[in-house]
Amino acid sequence: MNRLNALLTTAAVLVAATPAFAQDATLKNSDNLGMVAMAAALAIGIAVLGGAMGQGRAAAAALEGIARNPSASDKVFTPLLLGLALIESLVLMAFLVAAGFLGPLSGK
What is the pTM for the complete model shown? Predict the structure, then answer.
């Protein structure tokens, strides 16, 4: 229950902070460039945390399944690798989105 409370509190804080980032339409002449950089860093941090937790749970479930039925290791291994690759692709997608937020900061 503590995880759920922490998750809901974090979500509430992020939703409440969203209007603060939506005030300026242009980023080049804005005073909130540091806030945008912090938001991008927070976004990638949350994505990495979620991806790591997902990969850990997937690996634990696969290893538990193999431990219970060693003859099924060939059938579990390929979906495990596919699932881990898809989880990692979501983390990379979050990185690209965060880098897209920071793109206007470079002045190009």
Answer: 0.61
CA distances from 22 to 18, 29, 81 (A): 7, 14, 39
Q: What is the DSSP-derived secondary structure letter of residue 24?
A: -
Residue 6 in contact with residue 49, Cβ under 8 Å? no
Give the model confidence (pLDDT) of 7-34 as tens digits. 767 766 566 655 555 555 555 555 677 7
| CATH classification number, 47-103, choose in 2.40.50.840, 3.30.70.20, 3.40.190.150, 1.20.20.10 | 1.20.20.10
DSSP secondary structure, 33-85, as one string: HHHHHHHHHHHHHHHHHHHHHHHHHHHHHHHHHHHH-GGGHHHHHHHHHHHHH
